[in-house]
Amino acid sequence: MTKRTQVAIIGSGPAGLLLGQLLLKAGIDNVILERHTREHVLGRIRAGVLEQGTVGLIDEAGCGRRMHREGLIHHGIELSLRGQRHRIDFNDLVGKSVMVYGQTEVTRDLMDARAGIGAPTEYEALNVTPSGYDGTQPIVSYLKDGAAHELGCDFIAGCDGFHGVSRHSVPESALTVFERVYPFGWLGVLADVRPLSHELIYVNHARGFALCSMRSPTRSRYYIQCDASERPGHWPDDRFWEELRRRLDPEAGAQLATGPSVEESIAPLRSFVAGPMRFGRLFLAGDAAHIVPPTGAKGLNLAASDVHYLAEGLIAHYRSGSDAGLNAYSARALARVWKAERFSWWMTSLLHKFSDSGAFGERIQLAELEYLVGSRAAATALAENYVGLPF
Ligand code: FAD
Ligand code: DHB
């Protein structure tokens, strides 16, 4: 059966949902095709920190109410270095803050708003295949409940994450890929215990990196650097808490509240950029085009800035017939992506233990950390990037 819409969006992660909502607000029809169920998408525990620009975009999409009620505003972070904590005060350094509000909650708010206005999302859409985007009549074909469907559209938005079909549908020769894979991962644990501190603590320790984060005043999110080959099953709760405590300063270690994990996962660390982000009438946004290592919490925020540029371009196309925004999309998005790639790579290099860096590498890392916590200029550069560069 052939249906039609103006914009076919592949993927109902933050990028696809936010784009869908911004377009609907501007009167532009769209259909989201998602491979998994709604429950599966909501069950993935991922990012936790939103930049002000992302918060503004969620507001613009009309979905910010619960975020402002339940989200936690953070005016700084702490860096733990050789057993001592140093605060980076965003408010003082750059006059901005960030919002701690989980990706799961952002996704739920956007899904609820979409369902509330009856906008179509096809969950469990299988074999999703974009085609015809190098001409004027793109089509996305898919299987749903065993039946074959075709969705004709003006444009396709590939918001289907790193493993999605959109980027893979483009001939390899048309893409330039830049990649760095790090020799370690993050083991993350979510637990219903009070957070260690009212702000996030990023830890550089001889045993490896650790991060103390949170989702609410009663729900904590902790990460430790682990070997890339580790499996969550190797880490019973007691082993995780003990290892985390060993990486904290004594005061924090004594205050750490522990409890059964609600969720445990291992994320590999990777930097990846594929360009351009546009192929005729197919546009890539979010993780479909780029990945950052999680240090510095830029992944979800980059998905939001891509969507901002793409929504602007599509809205101008339909309102005024101008394609200037769509033509500039890839270059505008990639300019911001590369700055966040640099920052995430730098935060990762600064805070993790690299087994091959040798004694010289370790001393350079320590010198850089000491410079950072002792220099207002260096701390300002961190703060400016952490709260998010302008869209
Ligand atoms: P996604 O959230 O990946 O959404 C893509 C959607 O497309 C998914 O729902 C997927 O099911 C769907 N899809 C995929 N293929 C198809 C297909 N063929 N057909 C139809 N639908 C398809 N960032 C941080 O800032 N901090 C973190 O702590 C953090 N932790 C992370 C942990 C993990 C395990 C991962 C994978 C990512 C993490 N990130 C983190 C990154 C952040 O979550 C992503 O940058 C963000 O989800 C990007 O949003 P997106 O919408 O582009 O992609
Ligand atoms: C979280 C993840 C990050 O990568 C980060 O830098 C800060 C917070 C989190 O999941 O809470």
Describe, in short, the structure shown.
This protein has 391 residues and is an alpha/beta fold. Helix content is 38%, strand content 29%.
Layout: helices, strands, pairs:
Blueprint: E1 2-4, E2 7-10, H1 14-25, E3 30-33, H2 38-42, E4 49-50, H3 52-60, H4 65-70, E5 72-74, E6 76-81, E7 84-89, H5 90-94, E8 98-100, H6 103-116, E9 121-122, E10 126-131, E11 139-144, E12 147-152, E13 155-158, H7 165-168, E14 176-191, E15 200-204, E16 210-216, E17 219-227, H8 237-247, H9 250-255, E18 261-275, E19 278-279, E20 282-284, E21 290-291, H10 299-320, H11 324-351, H12 358-374, H13 376-386
Parallel strand pairs: 1-12, 2-3, 2-13, 3-9, 6-15, 13-20
Antiparallel strand pairs: 4-8, 5-8, 6-7, 10-11, 11-12, 14-17, 14-18, 15-16, 16-17, 18-21, 19-20
Helix pairs in contact: 1-6, 1-10, 10-11, 12-13
Flavin-adenine dinucleotide (FAD) is lined by residues 10-16, 33-36, 41, 46-48, 103, 125, 128, 159-161, 163-165, 265, 267, 286-287, 294, 297-300, 303.
Q: What would you say this structure looks like, in words?
A:
The protein contains 13 helices and 21 strands. Strand 16 and strand 17 (219-227) form a beta hairpin. The longest helix has 28 residues, at 324-351. By secondary structure, the chain is an alpha/beta fold. It has helices at residues 14-25, 38-42, 52-60, 65-70, 90-94, 103-116, 165-168, 237-247, 250-255, 299-320, 324-351, 358-374, 376-386, and strands at 2-4, 7-10, 30-33, 49-50, 72-74, 76-81, 84-89, 98-100, 121-122, 126-131, 139-144, 147-152, 155-158, 176-191, 200-204, 210-216, 219-227, 261-275, 278-279, 282-284, 290-291. Helix content is 38%, strand content 29%. It is globular. Helix 1 packs parallel to helix 6, helix 1 (14-25) runs parallel beside helix 10 (299-320) and helix 10 runs antiparallel to helix 11. It has an eight-stranded mixed beta sheet with strand order 7-6-15-16-17-14-18-21. It has a six-stranded mixed beta sheet with strand order 9-3-2-13-20-19. It has a four-stranded mixed beta sheet with strand order 1-12-11-10, with no helix packed on it. The structure holds flavin-adenine dinucleotide and 3,4-dihydroxybenzoic acid. Residues 10-16, 33-36, 41, 46-48, 103, 125, 128, 159-161, 163-165, 265, 267, 286-287, 294, 297-300, 303 line the site of flavin-adenine dinucleotide (FAD).
